């Protein structure tokens, strides 16, 4: 089965956002990965509802919205209304994670949980059967272009075992430092979806780069 490819729009050319989204529409990308940063949970600020709505107007593929924000529960419904079809919140940002997962599902969106590099997958034991996606951060969140953290491979294996043990249908998404070299092993270890930002948008031919990632399996 071929992997889900979710190019990260954060690495695109914001001055030509419409054409970048249209390029992704024509590519073999499956989702558009949208990073929302508030300058509090992570040391960077990206964009909010107006930009997400602008992307949604042109996108022909699902918007995979990754909330790197504190108190995400305050904005779930707004992100859904702005076009999010998958909403991932960070375990580290949620005091009541199970409630927030149910809140996401109540909007009709798919619910994801993201984990920082230092966070153990075992902390998902009580909710893994309720989520549609686990986003494993393979770099420290906040900035694109970082070096891939090698411990991610072991983490994917542990997460895959947890998913199987709890009879969960959750997909495993890898976000950060994904490229042509590490993609095959990520998929071998159990990843289902690959987020790629700089690797796609800084390449000479983004459409071909996406195709190469798509055809790893």
Distance between the termini: 7 Å
Please, how many domains? 1
Give the oligomeric state.
Answer: single chain
- Class derived from helix and strand content: alpha/beta
Q: Can you tell me the CATH topology?
A: TIM Barrel
Sheet with most strands: strand arrangement: 1-8-7-6-5-4-3-2
Unreliable runs: none
DSSP summary: helix tally = 8
Q: Main sheet?
A: 8 strands, parallel
Bulk shape: globular
In the CATH scheme, the class would be Alpha Beta
Number of strands: 8
Mean pLDDT score = 96
CATH architecture: Alpha-Beta Barrel
Look at the structure and name the CATH superfamily. Aldolase class I
Question: Roughly what percent helix?
Answer: 25-40%
Beta-strand residue fraction: 15-25%
Order of helices and strands: EHEHEHEHEEHEHEHH
Radius of gyration of CA atoms, rounded to a whole number:
16 Å
Keywords: Carbohydrate metabolism, Cobalt, Isomerase, Manganese, Metal-binding, Zinc
Pfam families: Ribul_P_3_epim (PF00834)
Function: Catalyzes the reversible epimerization of D-ribulose 5-phosphate to D-xylulose 5-phosphate.
Family: Belongs to the ribulose-phosphate 3-epimerase family.
What does this structure look like?
The protein has one domain (4-214): Alpha-Beta Barrel (TIM Barrel). 32% of the residues lie in helices and 20% in strands. The chain has helices spanning 17-26, 49-58, 76-81, 97-106, 152-165, 183-189, 198-201, 206-214; strands at residues 4-7, 32-37, 63-68, 84-90, 110-115, 133-137, 171-175, 193-196. Strands 1-8-7-6-5-4-3-2 form an eight-stranded parallel β-sheet. The mean pLDDT is 96.
């Amino acid at each position: 089965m071929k992997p889900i490819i979710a190019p990260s729009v954060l690495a695109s050319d914001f001055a030509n956002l419409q054409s970048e989204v249209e390029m992704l529409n024509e590519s073999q990308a499956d989702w558009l990965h949208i990073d929302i940063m508030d300058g509090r949970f992570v040391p960077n600020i990206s964009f909010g509802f107006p930009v997400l709505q602008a992307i949604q107007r042109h996108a022909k593929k699902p918007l995979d919205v990754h909330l790197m924000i504190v108190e995400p529960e305050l904005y779930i419904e707004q992100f859904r209304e702005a076009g999010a079809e998958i909403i991932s919140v960070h375990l580290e940002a949620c005091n009541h994670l199970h409630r927030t997962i149910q809140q996401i599902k109540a909007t009709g969106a798919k619910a994801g949980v993201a984990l920082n590099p230092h966070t153990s997958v075992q902390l998902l034991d009580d909710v893994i059967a309720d989520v549609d996606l686990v986003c494993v951060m393979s770099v420290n969140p906040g900035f694109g272009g970082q070096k891939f953290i090698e411990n991610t491979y072991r983490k994917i294996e542990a997460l895959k075992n947890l998913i199987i043990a709890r009879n969960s249908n959750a997909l495993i998404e890898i976000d950060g430092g994904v490229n042509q070299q590490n993609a095959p092993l990520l998929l071998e270890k159990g990843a289902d979806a690959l987020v790629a930002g700089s690797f796609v948008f800084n390449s000479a031919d983004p459409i071909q780069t996406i195709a190469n990632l798509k055809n790893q399996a």
